[in-house]
Design a protein that fits this description.
The chain has no helices and eight strands. The chain is an all-beta fold and 136 residues long. It starts with a strand and ends with a strand.
Amino acid sequence: MTRHSMTARGTFEVSMTPQASNTHDGVTESRLGLEKRYHGHLDASGAGTMLSASTATPGSAGYVAMERVSGTLHGRSGSFVLQHHGLMERGTPHLAIAIVPDSGTGELSGISGQCHIIVANGTHSYELHYSLNPTP
């Protein structure tokens, strides 16, 4: 079967629930619960855990997160896991979000790709660039 690249676009809402936090030497480390609701080509819910560190320098921080996304993507039902890696260096963001290999289930089995997040005028949008490969 041939690999076919697609792009899904839409908006999402996100809520984060603080679970634990502590500060040492000006660095605040936090653990947060993550809940998302995706709209558009991806009609799904996301849930996961985020770990973050904020420094004493304004605009400098980092986070990692694992998020399980369940729903439909271009009409295909299933789930997959996103791995987030974000850095903010004095206000300049660097964000990488990838689909964890072999995490797809159901009709999304064999999914791979990357996700880009856009925040403009208070609205969160996504572009999910993905391929579906047959699983062995």
